[in-house]
Amino acid sequence: MTDEELKQLIESNARTAQAMLDTMAEARQEREELREGIQELRVGMLQLQNVVERLANIQEGVANLLASLDDDRPTILRKLTAIENKVDRLLHKEQENIGE
After folding, report:
1. Is residue 35 a part of any domain in this protein?
2. How far is CA 53 from CA 56, 63, 66, 67, in A?
3. CA-to-CA distance for 88 and 83, rounded, in angstroms?
4. Residue 62: inside a domain
5. Considering the domain boundaries, does residue 41 fall inside one?
6. What do you get for the CA distance between the two ends of the chain, in Å?
7. How far is residue 44's CA from residue 47's CA, in Å, rounded to a whole number?
8. What are 11-68's pLDDT values in tens digits?
């Protein structure tokens, strides 16, 4: 092998080695980006889980409120009926007073 061929072989090997190092560096960078993406995904999943928990609590609160309103409805209806009866009596008395 001549000196020129040896020199070309060494340069070729050097280029190949550099290309391999570049490829390894790119792969390392891609892995780091993937790790960051996975971490962001985990944070997003935790935030989503927190939102779902809050929505469940809100839903439970609304259900309790509706149940409470259902429990209060008979009391409210009784009070409204009593008011209606008083108004009817007052109107009836007023009509009797006018008729006299």
Report:
1. yes
2. 5, 15, 20, 21
3. 9
4. yes
5. yes
6. 140
7. 5
8. 999 999 999 999 999 999 999 999 999 999 999 999 999 999 999 999 999 998 888 8
Total number of domains in the chain: 1
**Which residue's structure tokens are 């892995």?**
31
Q: Give the three-state DSSP class for 100.
A: coil
Per-residue pLDDT tens digits for 9-26: 999 999 999 999 999 999
CA atoms of 88 and 96, how far apart (whole Å): 12
> In the structure encoding, which two tokens stand for residue 58, read together?
């809100």
CA distances 86 to 80, 82, 90, 98, Å, are 10, 6, 6, 18
- What's the predicted TM-score (pTM) here? 0.52
Instruction: Note whether residue 89 is domain-resident.
Output: no
